[in-house]
Each structure stands twice: as C-alpha cells, then as structure tokens.
Amino acid sequence: MTSDQVQPLADDPSAPDDALSPDEAQEVRRRQASSHMVVHEAVRLQGEEELARPVVALMLSGLAAGLAITISLLAELYLRMRLPDERWAELVYLLGYPVGYVIVILGRLQLFTESTVTAVLPVAARPSIAGLARLARLWSVVLTANLIGVLIVVALMAGEIIITHEQRLIAIDILQKLPAQEGFKTLTLGIPAGFLMASIAWLLPNAKGSEFWVISLLTYVIALGGFSHVVTGFSQTAFLWLNGSMTVADMLLDFLLPALAGNIIGGTGLFAVLAHGQMRGDSEAADEKH
C-alpha cells in the first residue's frame, strides 16, 4: 500500500467505509466540509491578520467599507421608488439590502460587525492585556472609519449631489415611515444582527464558491427581520438627521449606541464565545483520548 492511500480503521466510525477503494476514500475526505476546529483556526488567523494591520490601513479599509455599505441604502431606496405601496413589495425591495455587504465582504474591506468574531477569537485563544488593547484599537478605528464613510455618502445624498431632489423627498418619506423604536428595542434587535454577521465570517471558509449566496441570504434575513446593524442603520438615521427629521440625541441614544451594544453582544458574546467554547471542549476531549 502506498503512503497516499487511506487505510480506514474498523473501530473508527469517522473513517470512510472499508468497501471503498483508496481513491474513493480519498475523494470522500476531500469532499467533507472542514471541521469546526479547522474553521476556527482559519477565522482566528484572519483575526490575527486584522489585529496586526497598521492603523492607516485599517482606517482606509474601514472608510472604503463605510462608503460601499451605503449602496445597500441606495439600492433599497431605488427599488422602493419603483414598486407599489403593497405588503408583498417589501420582499422585493429588501433584495437591495445585501448589495453593499456583498461589495464589502467579497472585497475584503474592514466592516466593524465582521470583526466581532474574527478579531475576538485570537484574543479568546490567548487572553492578555496586550491582546485586548489591540482589539480595542481595531474596533475603535474600524467603527469610526465606517461611520465617517457612511456620513460622507449620506451628506452627498442630503445635498442632492448623488440623488435628485425628487429622490431625496421620496427617501425622506420612506425612512420617516419606518417604525420608531426606543433604545432598548434597538439593542435587542441588534443582537441577532450581530450573530448573523458573525455567522457569515464563520461560514465563508467552508463556502467554497458560494460566498455570494451566503452573504446575500444572511443579510437578507437581517433586512426581513428589521434587525439593527450599527453601520447600515446609521446611514438611515444620519440621513434623517441631516434632513432635520431626527435629532442628534435621538440618533445616538435610540439607535447608534444601542445597536452597537447589541451587535457586540450578538457577535462576540453569543457567537464568538460559543464557537470558541465548542472548539476548546473538543480540543480538551481529544487531548484526554491521547
């Protein structure tokens, strides 16, 4: 038997069936999805790369992500303007919501909610004051850059530079009709948004050519659920603020800060901790077996 042939173990239920030829067994192993430990390591290494990036690189990447994510707002508004005011139309115009995310994530731009899992795993794997400091640096720089990028585009919209006067009035009317919610409700709606965004980062290593559909499906669910995403939602509230339909206090206290807290809880507190805990449990079990 050559060294590249697979010799399945009779007492190993995870090994391919003995009836398979060595080539068939090798093909089965090739087609298997990566284990969660492999995915964990892939995401952790991505996080290490993000934590090591210079501030200037993080700022520029985050700024580009903020500019690009507003395409979600524009795409959704353009679809709404062309559809009747019917209940079913929501299923169609919300298809515009994933557009900005596809650009940002496939373009490997720095979006705050992705780093709630990618950048946290290295810190969870090797806890230290220095690691927490690097995480705080990453989060603060990326979030600030994201919001600045969004604000630039929204200001251009409010000034009728990249949209027409009629489109601006329609956008104001549409956004004013969105259900008003208080800070605590925004926080609770931010938790599933954070969880879903962290899920995207976790699923992409196994997507194998289906990255577009993973991103589109999960962000479409965020839109359908009316969940609060701190960066995308800021584009809506900032637009209303610049048009005099919302105060700074309402924007900060009823949306931005609660959505930020909810996204961190969902992405870090729920997803990253559970994913890391699962990996640690299996790793310890494997060590005991050996």
Automatic annotation (TrEMBL):
Give the chief site where it resides. Answer: membrane
Q: Name one Pfam family in it.
A: Form_Nir_trans
> Which sequence ranges are marked TM in the entry?
55-79, 91-111, 138-163, 184-205, 217-243, 255-275
What's the protein called, per UniProt?
Formate/nitrite transporter family protein
The domain of life is Bacteria
Membrane topology per the record? Answer: Multi-pass membrane protein
Entry keyword Metal-binding: no
* Keywords, comma-separated and alphabetical: Membrane, Transmembrane, Transmembrane helix
The Low complexity compositionally biased stretches are 8-19
Q: Does the keyword Amino-acid biosynthesis apply?
A: no
Region feature Disordered, mapped onto this chain = 1-33
Q: Which Gene3D superfamilies match?
A: Glycerol uptake facilitator protein (1.20.1080.10)
Quote the subcellular location field of this record: Membrane
